[in-house]
Specification:
single chain, 122 residues, alpha/beta, TIM Barrel, 4-stranded parallel beta sheet, 5 helices, 4 strands
């Protein structure tokens, strides 16, 4: 017997926010990009709220949670601050990712075994 899986498309809007922040303007607007992605058939919107807020901002997360018609996949570091935000926003999905301030974008995976004790308490 072969299992069948539904294929879903998640669209990450982080780079739209990166351009906005680099320009120091209010455009391009990642919220608009998320809405366009949904209208084009995306099943989920992914966004990474970094501790340093270098691209996605708190207002983006809050506003998107209110208007998305699909799933929100919130990428975040395993910190108490991010846990508090996720608990308040209640995204459909959360993906824990490592963060290093010197990287431009997330470059590696989360060391679950090396962080086992911390993550169990988290």
């Amino acid at each position: 017997m072969t299992a069948t899986y539904e294929r879903l498309l998640g669209v990450n809007i982080d780079h739209v926010a990166t351009i906005r922040q680099a320009r120091g303007t209010r455009y391009p607007e990642p919220i608009q990009a998320a809405l366009v992605a949904e209208q084009a058939g995306a099943d989920a919107i992914t966004l990474h709220l970094r501790e340093d807020r270098r691209h996605i901002q708190d207002r983006d997360v809050s506003y998107l949670k209110d208007i998305l018609q699909t799933r929100m996949n919130l990428e975040m570091a395993a910190t108490q601050e991010m846990l508090k935000i996720a608990s308040e926003i209640c995204p459909e999905d959360v993906c824990l990712v490592p963060e290093r301030r010197e990287e431009l974008t997330t470059e590696g995976g989360l060391d679950v075994m090396g962080s086992k004790t911390y993550l169990q308490e988290y």
